[in-house]
Amino acid sequence: MATIAFIGVGNMGGGMALNLVKAGHQVRAFDLSAVALERVVAGGASAASSAVAAATGADAIITMLPAGTHVRAAYEGELFAAAASHAILIDCSTIDVATAKALGEAAATRGLAMVDAPVSGGTAAADAGTLTFMVGGPAAAFAVAQPILAQMGKAVIHAGGAGTGQAAKICNNMILGATMIATAEAFVLAEKLGLDAQTFFDIAAKASGQSWSMTSYCPVPGPVPTAPSNRDYAGGFAAALMLKDLKLACEAAQGVGATVPMGAEAQSLYQLFVNNGGAVTDFSGIIKLLRGATA
Ligand code: NAD
């Protein structure tokens, strides 16, 4: 069993760190929030006094932080210097591709193994250990990270070199954001055309309009009982996080000269929804905006 430093034990990182404790690892947690730390300490992790204290001598260093600026500051400021030469560095945060690539390259020049390993699945999957990890980095680093990530997830997929884990994450979520809006739009139109929502679902779910946004996460209540639409769009994947991912996708597209008109439109609609008070609403709640209501 390994000694693992876990930096950032918030909504996602908390559950992930606890799954590593359950797998038998010695987990040293660090977070700026005392409340976040308390949860993992109650579950068997030890609280480190700083990121450096957590990382020094650890076999693995995992970060689960809000954004690229936090991740860059953590590695460049402290973690690269504190990491043992044999340690595997794993950033699970969702951040911009450019920063992930730059950090992977900076680690390599220091002789350290690093992967970007963002996740798909929300806090329920983090708690249950059923996340999907999309991993970018050298094959040798992936081989070391894979068994650790497998203890927090149901799928661990190597996407390619540094930054490609983040690329996979934002491209996936760009599809998700756009298909959710398209699905929500279609249900509103169907309703106005006199179609019953369940009937339209039964047809479209078996026709070419089918997508995950429809059949696993239907934005109207009823057809998919587990979907957040059945609990007034509470919980699930917050619209503010969808907006963050769409912004990352559009920025990345701009950086490489890719044309993403649907992604850009999805970003503006989620921005409008967030501005109208929808930030903490599940992202399928965008249907309220399309109905002309605020969040
Ligand atoms: P969160 O805000 O709950 O957790 C982040 C934690 O990092 C907080 O506890 C904060 O105190 C801590 N932190 C910030 N700066 C720090 C520092 N310098 N040192 C130590 N701790 C620091 O956020 P979250 O929902 O857990 O999301 C984490 C990442 O996972 C984000 O990049 C997010 O986009 C991504 N993500 C979230 C979800 C989700 O459903 N919540 C799903 C997939 C991916």
UniProtKB/TrEMBL annotation:
Pathway: Amino-acid degradation. Signal peptide: none annotated. Residues 163-290 form the 3-hydroxyisobutyrate dehydrogenase-like NAD-binding domain. InterPro entries: 6-PGluconate_DH-like_C_sf, 6PGD_dom2, 6PGDH_NADP-bd, HIBADH, HIBADH-like_NADP-bd, HIBADH-related, NAD(P)-bd_dom_sf. The active site is at 169. It holds the Pfam family NAD_binding_11. It comes from the Bacteria. GO terms for biological process: branched-chain amino acid catabolic process. GO terms for molecular function: 3-hydroxyisobutyrate dehydrogenase activity; NAD binding; NADP binding. Keywords: Branched-chain amino acid catabolism, NAD, Oxidoreductase. Residues 3-160 form the 6-phosphogluconate dehydrogenase NADP-binding domain. Belongs to the HIBADH-related family. This is 3-hydroxyisobutyrate dehydrogenase. It comes from Sandarakinorhabdus cyanobacteriorum. The gene is mmsB.
